[in-house]
Amino acid sequence: MGLAGHPALITAASLTLVYVAALLFYPHRDVLILWERDFSAPRGLLLALGLALAGYAGGLWRLLHPTLDNSKRQTLGLVALFIAGGLIIQLLATAITEGDPFAGVARRTFAWATGGYWTVGAPVEDVRDFVGRYAERAPTYPVHQSRHPPALSLIFTLGTFLFRHLPPALTQAIADWLRPQSCLGLLGEDAPAPWLAGALFGMTVEVILAMLVAWPLYAWLKRLAGARSARWAVGLYALTPGFGLWVSQFDRGVALFTPLILWCCERFADARRLRDAGLAGLAFSLATFITYGAVPIALIAVIYTIARLLSQSPLPTLLKAWRTWVAAILCAAAGAATVWLAAWLWSGLDPFRLYQVVFDSHLGIAFPFWPFVFWHPWDLLTMAGLPLVGLTLTAGWRRALPITSAALITLAALSLAHVARSETGRVWLYFVPLFLGATGVILPALPRRGAAIVLGLLVLQSVVQIGVLRVLIDYGITPERYPRVEIPAEAVRIDTRFMSDGAIALRAYQLQAAKPGGEGQVVLYWERVSERPIPHAYKAFVHVAADPQDQMRIAQHDEMPVRSKYPTTCWQRGQIVEDRMPLNIPPDAQAGEYLVFVGLYDPLTQQRAPAFASPPAEERFASILLPTRFIVEPAK
């Protein structure tokens, strides 16, 4: 069979081949390529990933032969293939970017920049107080966690609790293994053993949740279109690029709720039982307690249910049963309020205040409108797999209308609403089961060689996308990756110490002048001088002030060192750390000389680290007053 005469396959192949060619040969980043590319992946690992994906696809193609349909052996074979193959694919995909995949996943889990869930959840002692005051404290949490409800942090709270009650020797052994990988968190390598070991629980839960997507996906598709379609949908999941690219990110697990809710909607559409509407609402309630990003699943469910009901009965007939629909809406709404109501009654958590706190922060992100209307969905579609997208766009309206309409209408509405600013395909991975479902319905209607073409296209895209794109590169710099730094001869030497035991020294600095409305810079050269690791991930601050009391500031900058990529908890003894602090000078600043204050503080407690200085530097307000003045040059 050739591609001629099969528009769905032509679309799938065209989208995939153009994108793969752009990844490999197009020199620029633009609408088609949103992430950094790196062509230095080890060839051996790339080959191993390609063989694993191809072997998985080949096994799936043989396993799902029509003559084996409805065979118990086929079902068991699919389960074994998905579990073993899915784990191997994730392992190899992570090894390509991390070298040591287990250490890489641990670092991503600990790192505050990829979530901060461990940082927030591991130390929690009083869960009721934590949940009840979550809205109040959320703005002080790391950037991702400050924009999410408490559920993901509580996973690590549970991990800490479990390891407190396991044999201490086991907990200590796991903590000692993880300790060197934990420095990118905000709690430090000296964190108690149960906190560190609890991260292993969170890492495991993330992988399990990602794999569990297959269970409700199978149940939903089997009820909608039969076992063969369900098996195709489940089998294809491990071949989607997002499955391997985003290991350690809980957004993969949120995809569990889309097929789970649609399974309840399908049961309601078949039997009109109100309890199914209530269960759909309950699943939605739990999803939103994990992330407000799951809110659009409600629109997916509504569109899907309406399309399914219209496929069964004409609109006038449906309108006659309006009492059933009203009752179903009320049951779904009651279910949707369940988890939040329970949290409010138990702890006093105000869901409306939390929603406002989260979105006040999120909507403050300034991004242009129209580019992201296209970038957001395109990023998601590349993570879902362009062969699946091509089939859905072309054949989904005819063969899988409820799924296709729910996916594409919701995706368009979400993108046009412009509430998901600066988000990525990772955040929208809960759409992936929809494209899997539509493809699962479409593939059995194609000639068998058509399924082989789709599998080949998926393998090609996944190998290239996982091998070339670098989507998790900003979670921080580990000690072995930090380059050796020498203090330049032109830097001003200084004798200072920070922390009560003098564990951190500021050895030198450089000041770069600026004009009003321009950007200056202070370059700091830090050194850890203590034997023990630094116990806190301090933020450094630079204040440029007109008075010795540090009150009349014209500029300041607060940030963890090396643009937040190399926390003090990662510093090695004797290592010089170069920290460039930009300073935006206001346009109305007066030309002249200004005082410069430098210090450190713990972002979790807002407490400054004690400071000590030898002349000509001075200690002021737990900070160091540099002996050199910052120059604001005349505007002309």
Explain what you see.
This protein has 636 residues and is α+β, with helices and mostly antiparallel strands. The chain folds into 3 domains: 7-99 and 213-249 and 350-470, no CATH class; 111-212, no CATH class; 480-632, Sandwich (Immunoglobulin-like). The chain is built from 26 helices and 14 strands. The chain has helices at 7-25, 43-63, 72-98, 101-110, 117-121, 127-132, 134-137, 151-164, 168-178, 193-212, 214-225, 227-237, 241-245, 251-254, 257-271, 274-290, 297-312, 315-320, 322-347, 351-362, 369-384, 386-399, 401-417, 432-442, 448-468, 561-564; strands spanning 36-37, 469-470, 492-493, 496-498, 504-512, 519-528, 539-545, 553-559, 576-584, 592-601, 611-613, 618-620, 623-625, 630-632. The strands form 4 sheets. Strands 7, 8, 10, 12, 13 and 14 form a 6-stranded antiparallel sheet that branches. A 4-stranded antiparallel sheet has the order 3-5-6-9. Strands 1-2 form a two-stranded antiparallel sheet. A hairpin with a 6-residue loop joins strand 5 (504-512) and strand 6 (519-528). Helix 11 runs antiparallel to helix 12 (227-237).
